[in-house]
Amino acid sequence: MTTAGAIALKLKTAKSIDIVIHRRADGDALGSAYALKHALPDKKVSIICLDQPAQVFVNVLGESAVSERLTGADLVLVLDCAQLSRTGLGGELTRLANRRKNVILVDHHQPGDLNKIANLCWQNSDAAATAEMVWEILNALRVRLTEPIARAIMLGIYSDTGGLSHKNTTSRTFRLAARLSLAGAKPDQIARELGQKRTLEETQLLGFALSNLKRSSLGIVAVKISRQALSSLELDAEDVRGLAGQLCICERAKAAIVLVETDSGWRGIIRGRLGGQNLKRLAAIFGGDGHGDIAGFLATKELISGKI
Predict the structure, then answer these.
(1) Over 80: is that where the pLDDT of 84 sits?
(2) pTM
(3) At 16, which helix (H) or strand (E)?
């Protein structure tokens, strides 16, 4: 039996399911969760996230209740998240796993600490998005592909592939997108919602970054954003997640590094066109890691001084 099949069997036997996604959930996390909820109408399925979905995703997926607390379900399914800390529910999930409750992880990132506590873990960094993996689970469940499910899966893969344009987009991704489109998913609607709307604060953040951007002789662009700068823009460290992706498209830029000051130190977010191994080596200079076109690290001010 495949891992997708084993997870499908667990979902079939559970009467109630808590789907946990990371804080500040993106399109992949939300799309994956919504698709599974639509696919299991006869079960009590709750989506658990400490933050309510951004309006841009609600516009695509429609309204659906998102709870901040675990409900005590038979099974807990964590989607699109490798680190316990990103769920904000690390202590509760660890206690559930220690009590041999069913905690399942499905994720397309490099392994983190969640795979150490999950009873069943499926991590596939070759998948373009967690939504691709959820699609395999739905196939194993023999779920009929409805328009709401297709729309949710499409949001997931569209979000994590940059509109089917990043290197992680494979022939499998295109075949899936075609099937979702035939089922009623509208990528043009998702493109309008995700690509053409930006809050005033996000626009100001981009302006700040462009005004303070530095480029090295190696073609790496970088910007440092202090807590003071974030406060003046009425933003926090989580609001800069998509910024590096916008900066790496600058002319002759091979990669972009966004350094944002947090309580734990300077968090580095790297996006680029260098190729996975080079980005991973770049992150390793600061004690970080990465895969594909994504990498990151957490460093002290002293460590980054003179290097960025």
Answers:
(1) yes
(2) 0.78
(3) strand 16-20
